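Sample intake sheet
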Amino acid sequence: MTSVLVAENVSKGFFRNKALRDLDLQIEEGKVYGLLGPNGSGKTTFFKIAAGLFKPTSGRMTVMDYPIGAETKKLTAFMPTDDFLFGWMKINRILDFYADMYEDFDRNKALEYLTFMELQEEMKVSSLSTGMKARLKLAVTMARKARLYLLDEPLNGIDPISREKIIKMIMGAFRDDCAVIISSHLVSELETVLDEVIFLDRGTVVLAGDAEKFRLEKSCSIEALYKEVYHG
């Protein structure tokens, strides 16, 4: 199976704080990964390195065998937690912006996703609820034909209906030639869609592997395993 992302001994420090410590990971195509851990475990730092926004202090990361840089940005679609949508813009202008920025952006797909998410092109970003903004962010991210999708806390702080729609859309947009990594601490919501899980704690991988194998071997859900890993 093709490796989409490989991290080798990746560390990242901010002043005296080490956000990632000698991280080794291999992300394969055709799978949905859960990057799990409490706040401050290093999930966002990992995503920002993979997206080319941070440089690692040491170690190496590649996407489709390319070192992180201009080429990998073409292959990677990143949905950050930050509210990067301008309030004065209408949704159709957001689509124009993405079409100008990314060659792999499929406007027809974006419109299809917007319909599913119950959003209209003429809506102004400033009029959207938190849940609706999250739906919009996901729709434009998944409308790119990327090889790697990085979704940072897509379910955080939103209503149950939006959560359900977001999970359904992720699975509907998923392709066998890509990999999706979803970071979250809301494990129960994602339980059924994860092929692999990666547990991070203070910048280190403490447990990683096949989700179904863990369920069988540990005789528990991934949510219960999460509680065991972080709360003993």
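Comment: The radius of gyration is 17 Å. DSSP finds nine helices and ten strands in the chain.
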